[in-house]
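Quick one: structure for this chain?
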Amino acid sequence: MVSFAANSPSAIEGAPPLAHAYRPPRTRTCLGGKLVYGEGAFVTNDAFTLDCAIHDISEGGAKITVKQFQSVPLDLYLIVVKFRIAHRARVVWQNFPARGLRFNKSYFLSAKLPEEINFLRHIWLELSARPGGCYE
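Got it. Here's what it folds into:
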C-alpha cells in the first residue's frame, strides 16, 4: 500500500527526528523533473508520474514544487532528465506547493540498471526525446 504525505508544513511523520539538522549544501537551480511512483507497474499515460520543478538540489536531496494540488506518496523516484539520473527519494517536509526530498539512492540512467527499476530508463528516454521540452 502506498502511503501519501499529508498537506502539512511540518516534518513528515516517520521521518528521522534530525531530518532538518544537517543537509549538504544545495545548489539553486531551475530544472524540470518527473516524479515517478507505483514502482512502474502502471506507468502509462502519466498515470503514476507527475511533472515538477526542481528549485535546489544537492547530493542528499532537493526542493521541488508541483503545479497540481495533489498528494504524492512518501517514497518515490525523482528523474532529473538533464543530468540523466534518477533518485530514490522520500518526502521529508512539505509546504504546498513545495516539498523537500531526501535521496536514498541514485542511479545513472545511461548505465545498466537493476531489472526492477529499468522502467525508469524508459521514462527518461521518452522525456529526453521530446523536442523543446522543459526538462533541460
